[in-house]
Structure formats: C-alpha cells, structure tokens
Specification:
The chain has a single domain (10-223, 238-475), classed as MFS general substrate transporter like domains (Growth Hormone, Chain: A). Helices cover 76% and strands 2% of the residues. It has helices at residues 10-47, 51-57, 60-64, 66-92, 102-115, 118-124, 128-155, 162-186, 189-194, 202-226, 229-235, 237-245, 261-295, 300-349, 355-358, 369-393, 401-430, 435-454, and strands spanning 458-462, 470-475. Strands 1-2 form a two-stranded antiparallel ribbon. The longest helix has 50 residues, at 300-349.
C-alpha cells in the first residue's frame, strides 16, 4: 500500500514551542531557587540560625532539614499527580471558539505569572506559610497550563513526525530554561544566602521571578496569536489520518473499545521506566543547588553554568534524536540516552569538593569534571525525553491525546512526589551529600533495565519521497 509523504511544519511547531518555553522558564527558576529558600527558612525556624551560619558552624544540621524540604516539594508534586490527568482529560472534552487547549493555557499562565513573584517576597520576610501557599497556587495553575500545552503538539502533528516535532519544542523550552539560568549567573542566590540578615537585598532573588513571569505571559500571547488551534486542526485532518496508518505501534489504535493487550503492555513498560528515570532526574533537579552551595562550597552561579552547559548539550540531543531514531528506532535511542546519563552519574559519584584543597572560592571551587558530567547527562536525557513522549501518545487516538499526556505526566509527577522525600530521608540518615549522585545512578540503572527488557522496538524506515520522512516498518 502506497504511503502518503508527510512533512513537518517546522515554523508552526516552533510557534507551539513557545508554550514549552514558558513551562521550562518557570520550572528552572522554581527548581533552582525554591529548595534553597526552604532549606534556609526551615534552618532559621528550627535552629534560630540562617543556613549560612549553620553551614559554617554545624553543616550536618543543614542536611537534617532536607527531609522537610523534600516533603514540601513532594506535596506540590502530589497535587500535580492528581491535577495533570484531570486537566488533560477535561481539555480533551472541551470545545471553545479558541480551541480545546488554549483556554487552559491562557488562564493557567496568567494566574501562575501573577503569583510567582510572591514566593521570594514571602521568603525574604521569613513567612513560611505565605511562601508555601504561593508555591501551591503556582503549581495548581501550572498544572492547568502544562498538560494542555504539551498535548497541543500531538493534536496537530501526525504520529510519525512527533519525535522530530518534540525535538523542536524541547529546544524552544530549553531556550526558556537557559534564559532563567543566565539570570542565576548574575543574580547569585548564594550571595543572598551567605549574607547577614540586614545585608540581604531582595532584588537579588525577586528579579528572576518577575522576569520569568513577564516572559511566560509573552510566550503564551505569542502562541495564542500565531497558532489558531481550531483552524489548524481542521487543516491537518487528512495528514493526521495518514499518520494513524503509519503509526509505530504493535496493534491498531481504536477510538472506541478496550486498548489492545500488546499496546497496554507497551504503555505500562514505558511509564514504569519513565517513573524510574524521573526519580533520578528530579533528585538532581531538586537538590543540585543545595549540593553545590553546601557540599562543594561553590557559588550558586556555578550551578547555573553547569545547567547551561547541560542545556546546550540537550539542544544538540533534541536536534538529532529524531535522526537517530530513524536509524535505530525509538527504543534504542531512549536506551542509549539512559546509558550515557548513567555513565555521567557514575563519574559524578567520584567527584569531591576541590575548594578545601586548592583554596579557590566561588565558581572556581566547582570541580571541572562536573561540567563534563553535565554535557553527557544533558545529551543523554535529551534522547530519552525526545522519544519517550511520542511513544506514549503513539498508543492513543486523536480523541485521547490529553488523557495519554496525563498518563505520561502521572508517571513523571509520581516520581517527583516520591523522590524528594525519599532522597531527603537518605541524606538525613547518611549525612552525606554524595548520596545524591549514587541515588540517581541506581534509579537510572533500574530504568535502563526495565526499558530494554519490556519495551518493544518498532523501527521506522525511510520512505522514498522528496522529504525522506519516516514511515513504519516491521517490529524487531
């Protein structure tokens, strides 16, 4: 049977990527600043001293509060675990003149952007209740935004092209994350934390949150102005139908009736492995800032440089992941990424603070080997994230994209609910910051084993057409 050539609209995909730009921009600021805010404020309330004073006099007490930090971060993720599938399913059934996803994106963006700058304001005033409430408001409305925003790409992209499209929107997202990270280089959180109370300047921690809010609103407005959701969905009907015929699945997808057994097993295997790799990924995302400030005794700007380097490697990974998947299939592309990331974390397990030996301070006390770890891990996890989400939404019909996007985020947010508390307890028991890379490496190893053992590879082959885009071959 002759297959119709499919062509990815890169311009429109990049425009959809503005939604992901706003998501990663906010999360990068949130994950880089909030765990340290919580560490500092709990240290003050429990011991009557700032975390900087504890770091100098009794550093083990900083580790003792990490389980509380983990609980707060996990509570946010627990709410997301419940809300992401809800908003995804709700948006599947929504019909408005501006589309089924766009109302959730606009409302979620606006409220999140308004609440976000209040987090550092309450922290500066040492008001933990107000700070945690603002964190909860931001998380609630970002859940309203996130699932529909991510579901928008597969809504209007044929299945065989989604890995390439996912690479484009992830690159857009990493531009957002990189922007937030650059702010952290010049506005050093460690300068604020290490200062005496009277010398703490609120603008150091407030500016990144305000900038993130403004850019998040702008990105949502650009998306709304350039992507007319209902119109594009109508234009793409024929290509979407052809994409269903060329989908990389074991059994055909049906709009009605039970999910085929083979597809269900595939889905559960992907989600199980995803849960484990997010256990590793979120462990680093949550605690890397504290690891750098309190263990390596380096400036927080070193964390930002580490993140930027990893982000640049991720951009390269996202750019070529689709091409790699063309050659070896999505399964082995994901497995390769997991393997590379695991090797990077093994190296991180061997890293020790250098400042005590060399006498160097700030960014220069950050072990140079960790930058290589950032590159390897960034590239590897880009391969993982680029191909895994399309593998999940490949298994559903066009009427269930929000629901299956919810499944994908249920797995990731479950991990992000468990891992801050679990790792916080591990840090509290071991009193060793080096438990962080060991924990992450173990989780990635388990993820690799589950994924390679249980997930089948449906390998894409080239179609002889002018664009060389993928159609689907036989199961290996």
């Amino acid at each position: 049977m002759q297959m119709t050539p499919l062509k990815l609209n890169y311009k429109r995909t990049a425009q959809i990527g503005f939604a992901f730009f706003g998501i990663l921009l906010l999360w990068q600021v949130y994950d880089s600043w909030c765990p340290t805010f919580l560490t500092d404020i709990f240290a003050r309330q429990m011991y009557g001293l700032s975390s900087a004073q504890l770091k100098a006099g009794d550093p083990d007490k900083v580790l003792n509060v990490q389980w509380l930090v983990g609980i707060i971060m996990a509570c946010d993720n627990l709410a997301a675990l419940l809300l992401l599938p809800f908003f995804g399913h709700l948006s599947d059934k929504t019909k408005t003149p501006i589309g089924k996803r766009m109302p959730f994106i606009l409302i979620g963006t606006l409220v999140s952007a308004l609440a976000f700058p209040f987090i550092p304001l309450f922290f500066h005033r040492n008001q933990v209740t107000g700070m945690v409430i603002m964190m909860a408001v931001v998380l609630l409305f970002m859940m309203m935004y996130r699932n529909p925003a991510v579901a928008l790409m597969p809504d209007i992209t044929p299945k065989p092209l989604r890995a390439k499209a996912n690479g484009v929107i992830n690159i857009m997202g990493y531009f957002g994350g990189a922007f937030a990270t650059v702010l952290g280089i010049f506005l050093k959180l460690s300068d604020y934390i290490n200062a005496e109370d009277a010398a703490r300047k609120i603008w150091i921690i407030e500016i990144p949150f305000i900038v993130a809010s403004v850019l998040m609103v702008i990105s949502a407005l650009v998306l709304f102005a350039t992507v007319k959701e209902n119109q594009v969905a109508e234009e793409m009907k024929e290509q979407m139908a052809e994409g269903e015929r060329q989908a990389a699945i074991i059994s055909p997808v049906r709009d009605d009736g039970p999910m085929p057994r083979e597809n269900k097993q595939m889905l559960l295997a992907i989600l199980g492995a995803e849960f484990l790799w997010f256990m590793a990924d979120n462990a680093l995302g949550t605690y890397i800032g504290n690891y750098v400030i309190y263990y390596l005794n380096a400036a927080s700007s070193a964390t930002m440089i580490f993140t930027i380097i990893g982000g640049l490697a991720s951009v390269i990974g996202f750019a070529i992941a689709g091409l790699i998947a063309d050659k070896i299939g999505r399964k082995w592309t994901v497995a390769s990424g997991l393997g590379l990331s695991f090797l990077g974390l093994l190296v991180m397990c061997l890293v020790r603070p250098t400042g005590q030996v060399t006498g160097l301070q700030g960014e220069f006390s950050f072990p140079a080997l960790l930058y290589l770890v950032g590159v390897v891990r960034g590239f590897g996890m880009a391969l993982v994230h680029n191909c895994s989400f399309p593998m999940v939404v490949e298994l559903c019909s066009s009427k269930q994209i929000g629901k299956f996007t919810g499944y994908y985020y249920t797995a990731s947010m479950s991990a992000q609910t468990v891992t801050p508390v679990l790792l916080g307890l591990v840090l509290n028991m071991t009193l060793a910051w080096n438990a962080l890379p060991v924990y992450a490496a173990v989780m990635l190893c388990l993820s690799f084993l589950v994924f390679t053992w249980r997930v089948k590879n449906i390998k894409a082959v080239k179609v002889a057409n002018a664009h060389g885009l993928e159609a689907i071959g036989e199961e290996e």
